[in-house]
Amino acid sequence: MNIDNLIKEIERYYDLGFPTMPNGSPSQFDDIFKITEAKINRLLTDNLSFTERKLISDIEKEFKEFNVLSEFEKQFPNYSISIQLHEKDIEELTIIYSLELRLSLLTQYFTAFYEERIIHKNSSLHLHTFTPITTSIRSSKTRVANYQEKYMDTIKRIVTVLFPNYSFLSHHLLCKTIITNGVPLGLDPSLSNNGFSVYNFLFDNDFDYLGTTYITM
Q1: CA dist., res. 56 & res. 148, Å (int)
Q2: Adjacent-strand bridge partners of 197
Q3: Under a CB-based contact definition with an 8 Å cutoff, are residues 165 and 159 in contact?
Q4: What's the pLDDT tens digit per position in 160-170?
Q5: Element (H or E) spanning 122, and its range?
Q6: Please, which domain of life does this record's source organism belong to (predicted)?
Q7: Residues 111 and 138: beta-carbon distance below 8 Å
Q8: Which of these, 161, 164, 158, 198, lies nearest to 178 by C-alpha position?
Q9: Could you give the number of structural domains in the chain?
Q10: Residue 94, strand partner residues
Q11: Helix (H) or strand (E) holding 11
Q12: Do the Cβ atoms of 117 and 89 come closer than 8 Å?
């Protein structure tokens, strides 16, 4: 995938060139809102499409020994699914290992990665409201999955069968490619002085805020 072509995909939905304008121009997100609203409405009315239901059920079937969390309720134009592989407590820490899928509804690409979420149970970002400090490490491999390559291949197979026009992109490429003249849906320019990643524009708007720091490896 040529990165210039991927940026053109972003330009279809975002008014790049206004890096200091909170949430872009008033009409910038009209198409994105429509796509996201349609997804949420299908979920709320229990009217998900056959393909959407099949994506969830096939992943649940293939990973039946794990807890599969469908996150279709996210206010972002994506399909987000988290497969909880392992969780352990070490004194003041809770560590959650998962395999994450992000399928963009703005372009015909998806990505998947392993995430190690470290939650500091006794350390808060705020004094009066407890918000645990969290570090999220994302990688193409994990130390706790005995069949990590098999798991990743399984996710790719499920998606490409149900969405034959979609292709896989490395999360590392998406997270390390930065756009400096625009703001993704739901994020504020004050959150970053260095711009936002292609991942944040097209795949998910999770970012370093509310006590969570994301590290991509």
Answers
A1: 20
A2: 178
A3: no
A4: 999 999 999 99
A5: strand 109-124
A6: Bacteria
A7: no
A8: 198
A9: 1
A10: 89, 119
A11: helix 3-11
A12: no
CA 50 to chain centre: 22
Token output for 22: 């909170």
Angstrom distance (rounded) from CA 59 to CA 189: 35
Answer whether 31's CB lies under 8 Å from 13's CB: yes
Beta bridge partners of 117: 96, 136
Higher-confidence residue of 111 and 16: namely 111
DSSP 155: H
Q: What is the pLDDT of residues 40-56, one digit of tens each?
A: 999 999 999 999 999 99
In angstroms, how far is CA 126 from the centroid of its own chain? 25
Per-residue tokens: 131: 């918000």
Greatest alpha-carbon pair distance for the chain in Å reads 49
The model's confidence at residue 23, banded by pLDDT at 50, 70 and 90, is very low
For 5-25, b/e burial (b = at least 16 CB within 10 A) is: ebbebbeebbebebbeeeebe
Please state, in angstroms and as integers, the Cα–Cα distance from residue 101 to each residue in 26, 60, 75, 195, following that order: 30, 13, 16, 24
Structure-token pair, residue 138: 């994302």
Q: pLDDT (tens digit, 9 = 90+) per residue, 4-17?
A: 888 888 999 998 87
User: 10 Å Cβ neighbour count for 165?
Assistant: 7
The conformation of residue 53, written as its DSSP 8-state character, comes to H
Length of the chain as a residue count:
217
Domain assignment of residue 66, given as a range = 3-216
